[in-house]
Amino acid sequence: MAETLYIRIGSQAQDAIHWLIKTNANDEIIASGELRNSTELKQLTEKAEHRSVITLVPSCDLVLKSLSVPSKSTRAMRLAVPYMLEDELAQDVDQLFFAYADIDKQFDEAVKDKNCFVAALDRTLMQQWLQWFIDADISCKKMLPDVLALPLVKNGCSAIVLEEQILIRQGVWQGITIDFSAWPVISRQLINSVISSEKEDQNQQERFSIHAYSALPSDSKELNITAMPEELPLALLAQHAQQQPFNLMQGEFQYKEKRSPVRANWLWAAGIAVFALLFNIGIKGSHLMQLNAQQDLINKEIIQNYKRVFPNSKKVRINTIKSQLKRKISAAGGEGEQAGFLAMLSKVLPAFSAVPELKPESLKFDGKRQEIRIQAVASDYQYFDTFKSEIEKTDLGVEQGAQSSQGEQVSGSFSISDRSNGKRNARGGKS
Among residues 271, 157, 148, which one has the least CA distance to residue 224? Predict the structure, then answer.
């Protein structure tokens, strides 16, 4: 069952810290307690493992402001806000951290014309709070002003006493955390705010009330206080903190997931593997581009040679040369020296394609013997044997002539004849 650890810290390191563990499903309290100061946060390290952690901070250390900013751009609005509040804040805006919220304005008529909701607090204090959790090895992903975890009250406010402080929520984005000593002043301000509104609505004082979840100081008789069932302060805050979408940990203080050493090593290995794969693909791609370029040159040479042999050809495509060549041989009827030469040449060409290392220097055709004599060169003797093997796969006869080495090249000759023609002649002589 999923559980959450709620921690309410103080303004200073020596302030008491309250904590509570609650189930998310049925709001059952598992455990609760109090620590004397921030150095004892380490006692919660084990309790924080495998649980989500929500931290509540004193609202007396920050300012909640609702503004109407004349801008449709969120970025421009947030750039302008610090300087709009400059005269209202005691500190230099450069020393403050600003966190922004998206608020449902339907519940609170007082903010219906507002479009910017911001919390401002000392940047150094925010860093100090987060350092406490770092020192205690506690992963806190959400930090919330304590008053925003109190219940919302229509036409009124909610309040609860926590140690020597009173937490008061006055609206959807308004609340204060005060010391007991400040209660007479605050209660008088609440009374005056009700009285000043009587001209607008005679029933306002009757409708405005404070929902108190614990006993308030005795000098509160003039206020319309509704006593609510008393609860453990942190238990009441925990009921509403989970549903509150606002989080102080944003921007420069946004929580960053820690990576385990195993995962980091795995990611490092995966990065190397990806780099090697991309590098290999790059090499293969470069090689493929070179092969495509070579193929384009060979295709151009074939087309040029074809046009040189058949100058009247207009449209010549590399993928149709073979079929066009066969048609021309067929059109010649297979008779005469040219027909015989072309017929044999069409059978020899695949052998040259199979052994591109063998380069013909001269080619002669004996029409009477129906024989092609080829003088060729290559860089090695084996290419002559390979070429002969390719010719022998056809119905042509081949005789390999003498070979000689000339520097880095080997020169040799072939005599290629038509076997089928020899067989016809033999049958004719026998008859």
Answer: 157
| pTM greater than 0.70 | no
- pLDDT band for position 195 (cuts 50, 70, 90): low
Q: What is the pLDDT of residues 142-189, one digit of tens each?
A: 999 999 999 998 888 999 999 889 999 998 999 999 998 888 888 888
Domains delineated in the chain: 3-258 (3.30.420.380), 344-430 (3.30.1360.100)
Burial 337-348 (b: 16+ CB within 10 A, else e): eebbbbbbbebb
Report pLDDT digits (tens) over 268-315: 888 888 888 888 898 888 888 888 888 888 888 888 777 776 666 767
- Find residue 171's DSSP bridge partners: 174
- Nearest to residue 88, comparing CAs of 66, 109, 70, 73? 66
Q: 343 forms bridges with which residues in the sheet?
A: none
The C-alpha atoms of residue 48 and residue 43 are separated, in whole angstroms, by: 10
* Residue 297: Cβ-neighbour burial (10 angstroms; 0-12, 13-18, 19+): exposed
Residues 6+ apart with CB under 8 A from 148: 59, 64, 169, 173, 175, 241, 244, 246
Taking each helix axis from N to C terminus, what angle separates 336-354 and 321-331, rounded to the nearest 10 degrees?
160
